[in-house]
TrEMBL record:
Coiled coil region boundaries: 351-378
Topology versus the membrane: Multi-pass membrane protein
Species for this entry: Pseudaeromonas paramecii
Domain Histidine kinase span(s) in chain numbering: 394-625
EC number: 2.7.13.3
Keyword Metal-binding on entry: no
Keyword Magnesium: no
Protein name: histidine kinase
Segments crossing the lipid bilayer: 12-35, 315-335
Amino acid sequence: MSLSVLNKPPNLVWRLFSLWLPLLVLIVMGGTFAYTQSRDARLATVTAEQTAYVNQSITQISAELSHLRHLMLLLKGSAAMRQGLPADDSWQLMRIESLFRRFVNVVPGVSQLRWLDEQGMERIRLNIGPKGALRVPDSELQNKADRYYVSQGMQVAAEHVYFSPIDLNVEHGKIVEPIEPTLRATLRTGVGDGLAPGLLVMNINLADLFERLSTAVSDGMHLEILNGQGYWLLHPDKRLTWGFQYNAEKNNLAVRVPRLWQQMGQHHYANGQALAGEWLSYSLIQIEDQDEAPRYLYLLVTTDDGRLAQIHAALLPPILAVCLLCLLGGGAVLYRIGRADHERWQLGHRLAKEQAALRQAYEDLARLHETSQLLQDELVETRKLSALGMMVAGVAHELNTPTGGALVTLSTLHKQLHQLEEQLSSGLRRSDLERFVGQCDEGLRLALHNLQRVAGLIKRFKRLAVDRSQEQVHKFELKQCVDDLLASLHPLLKHQPVQLHVTIPDQLMLHSFPGVLSQVLQNLIDNGVQHGLLPKDGGNLWLEASKVERQQLEIRLRDDGVGMSAEQLATIFDPFVTSGRHQGHIGLGMHLVHQWVTQVLQGSLKVSSVPGEGSCFVLTLPLTVREPVAEAID
């Protein structure tokens, strides 16, 4: 954050608006969610009530139809019926009248009961009114063959009770007032039953049933019954009912609410639907299945707008109150936030100045760190060159003895050769020749031996130098690598009171960095000689190697020297930590060893020590390393 930005005070109004807007959105979303969940819970209760009323109404209607069916069959199968309407036309209509009177006295809701002959002519008819059952005189009996319920009733099976569509009772071409919702049940006679051919017809006045069904629903709901064409048979608004008989085609659900009627045609029942601005449930009931097109009734329970408004009115105030409280509380919090922003701006202004000073100090420290890193890299290279220089000096010293011996031997042989030439000119004796041959043979053997030593030293040094200079992964034998290292270290170790015991099995092959491993072992041996063992007393070094599980190699280097304290163990691998700084050591040896082992050789290095009992370094290395990392090697 720059000072130019901090010099401008923050826009408190914009800050409050940017914080208040998300809060407002959150409160609106939360209030909407709470309202929706609460409304759905209330509507679930309403839906359960509607479903219960629909099922209850279906049960009552089904029970009524089943009861009528059994009554018609019972009436037809009675003994009085067989005696009153024998098949031989010797009818005794007085018996039938007596049977009909007894029947209507025990069966409520019957408005007419009659028997028609096979031409559709009424032969006996009882009208049931407030004064009881009255037989219609024969002169007033009518031919009903043109009525749909007669023609259809004559076509059904003999033992099937036919139920006509529900309509209003019509007499002499006029609708009877007050209206009588009528269901006609018919049953054929004279088909294998010993009765005269004809049709029993019973008119059922459904006014009482409709009244019971409409009053069964609770307040705030009402029941509607529609026929299969969408006309209302029962509705709270009487003006909408019986539209198909009053030629009021608009009083039809398909016309007034086509979307609902279309859904009812596709789905025969629904519980808890929001359609046409109302909350409703409906179901279908089949009342006749013998026609070519089965006949249905639809029972529809709707909830008044007033009850839905009560639900909304009951939910909105508490939810709005909670939202308002959240807004007030949020406003107070936002005001505190605005004040805090102003104070934060003041603190930030001061902090920016301090940051500028800290940034300058950081840049200075970064430059110092870069310089320190370059110095450390130079010290590392110096350490490598120092080790290489010591190794070269040692190898040169080792080469001096056999080379000098070979030179002395060859010089003596050269002198003896000149003596032989002089003796040849003065007279060579056999004994002189034999002595020369013997001296020559012995001298050549001695020279050859010294030169072989020189060649071996040079070969080992060359192999060691190549391994360290190339720093590439290749396959090598561990014992040979250690032998080359010890040969280069021999001049340094032979003047020290140190005994080095090496136990390395043959044919132990590795696919790794031989130069890096040689450098690690050299530093560890050098560390043991310089720091682990006393210069005067000396001691023993043990270098051991063995395979362990999971294709790994374990190398142990231990001594019986002075050991290390807990503090020294905790910092032994840290850079520039040394106990021999007065001797010119810089403290990078063990740090480099740890880096080489963990990053290049892909292994681990552990150290344990007891003061006065010596130290033990344990290297755990894979027999085969992964792809080398150039940065780690460098």
